[in-house]
Amino acid sequence: MKTIGIMGGGQLGRMMTQAAKKIGFNVTVLDPGENSPAGQVADKQILGSWNDPESIKKIVTQCDVTTYDLEHINTDVLIELADAGHCIHPDPRVLKTIQDKLTQKQRLKEVGVAVPDFVQQDEGDTEAFGKFGFPLVQKTRTGGYDGKGVLVMKSADDVKNALPGPCMLEKMVDLDMELGVMVSRSTNGEIVTYPVTEMTFDDRSNILDLCIVPARISAELAVKAQKLAHDTMEAFGGVGIFGVELFLDKSGELSVNEVAPRPHNSGHYTIEACVTSQYEQHIRAVAGLPLGQATQARPSVMYNLLGEPDESGAPVVEGMEEILALPEVSLHMYGKKETRPFRKMGHITVTAETIEEAVDVTRKVQNLIKIKAES
């Protein structure tokens, strides 16, 4: 029986592990935290950092194929291991390009994929803001996630809050809606694209709040969004599943915001709503198996369960019985031993006959369930 290595033991790794075990693989996880969410369900966990060369070599050499549930990994070591003949997907060179937001955008622009206007901003170059023009978005080139490493500048008054380190500046889009598309690519180049997701965000944390699928857009626009995701995957040529975040501006034009070379928060809904979940699809792809169908069986809404503000400690789920009594509600808890303000602790997926029904039930869920800390 083959062993799949997953670098990263968070919730994405946990759900990848569950999908891999369902198919029949053994799973080894690399994570620095004992009893990590993925480690709880894997066959083995290696305690170590994703940036420690020895830990990376240990998991790669012990597994038949290695993948990851996050981008912030030592790619130089992975490239050496891939060049030595070890099977790593997506290709670490693809990961290296994507983990730097500037080189990611440069690659997309190079092949003609629509992206907002952008420029490189060198560390300490405060004149770059005025030259580029306001309003703009400053992004750190590496390490950002869930809204961290992103700063909106509406005028020169905001320059005093500039982010440190190497950054890029991006035109602020006159936004109508944020969309997402999960797209997978096999080892033989087959590409399968999932339905378009409509994404809303929690204003307090800038973390994804709701995913509504299918997105409430025209059929013509949905086809364009899927084509843009398909072209994005082709541009990088990776193997596995990628999350492609899109902007829809008020003139009806689409552009790529960011790309994640792994399963994505906006694809959680696929577990209940699609023939093949994003997690199983990723495992199929990296293991060299045929891709599954991405057909959506039921309209759905995914809701992120975040730790309550000002609550830290052992988690307590309030309202579980009430929400599970509602129709077609699925609860996924991630096994995290501590809740913190706005920490992702789990998610809920609601399926229904129509999107309107799924949204209505989700609103009830939001009012009932809370993740608090033991008093």
In DSSP terms (H or I, runs of 4 or more residues), the helix count works out at 11
CATH architecture call of the largest domain: 2-Layer Sandwich
How far apart lie the N and C ends?
45 Å
CATH topology of the largest domain: D-amino Acid Aminotransferase, Chain A, domain 1
The fraction of residues assigned to DSSP E strands is 25-35%
Counting structural domains, the number is 3
CATH homolog superfamily of the largest domain? ATP-grasp fold, B domain
Helical content class: 25-40%
Mean pLDDT: 95
- CATH first level of the largest domain: which class? Alpha Beta
Structural class: alpha+beta
Commentary on this structure:
It contains eleven helices and 18 strands. Helix 1 packs across helix 9 and helix 3 runs antiparallel to helix 4. It folds into three domains: 86 residues, Rossmann fold (3-Layer(aba) Sandwich), CATH 3.40.50; 55 residues, ATP-grasp fold, A domain (Dna Ligase, domain 1); 199 residues, ATP-grasp fold, B domain (D-amino Acid Aminotransferase, Chain A, domain 1, 2-Layer Sandwich). The mean pLDDT is 95. The chain has an eight-stranded antiparallel beta sheet. A four-stranded parallel beta sheet has the order 3-2-1-4, sandwiched between helices. It is 28% helix and 29% strand. The longest helix has 18 residues. It is globular. It starts with a strand and ends with a strand. The chain is of the alpha+beta class and 375 residues long.
